Amino acid sequence: MTDSPALTAAQAALAAEYAAVYGYGVVGARVAEDRAKEAREAYEAHRARRDAMRRAVRDLGGTPAAAAAAYALPFPVPDEDAAVRLAAELENRVAAVYADLVPAARGGLRTEAAAALREAAVRAVRWRGTGVAFPGLAERTSPTARP
Predict the structure, then answer these.
(1) To 10 degrees, the CA torsion angle through 26, 29, 31, 35?
(2) What's the pTM value of the predicted model, to 2 decimals?
(3) Taking a C-beta distance cutoff of 8 angstroms, is the pair 135, 98 a contact?
């Protein structure tokens, strides 16, 4: 049996949540105290979404993929500035997978995917300090697409 588009997109969202949970461990270790609460809240939000996506994958008839032992970061994170950039990047990546899940899903999963997309977009703005016109769409959030 082949995976449905919803199951494939849900597995991708689960993978992104695993990576976000891992990445926020790095962010939390590098941000200054004034942003530590924000990092902890994001970490907990992604843990909750991870658990919800594991359930969604099972509900769609799939077996949730396991988390990797470690994840490659998109760039070195030696200091607070890099940690803040990493947090924004994690949120951009999460928003992108939920942007794919929204049109693939139906019912409650679609509603949850839209909420997750919105939450990731808001967190990205908070970390980055600026917004994008179409959160989750790679061509609109890539560094080369910005003026």
Answers:
(1) 100
(2) 0.87
(3) no
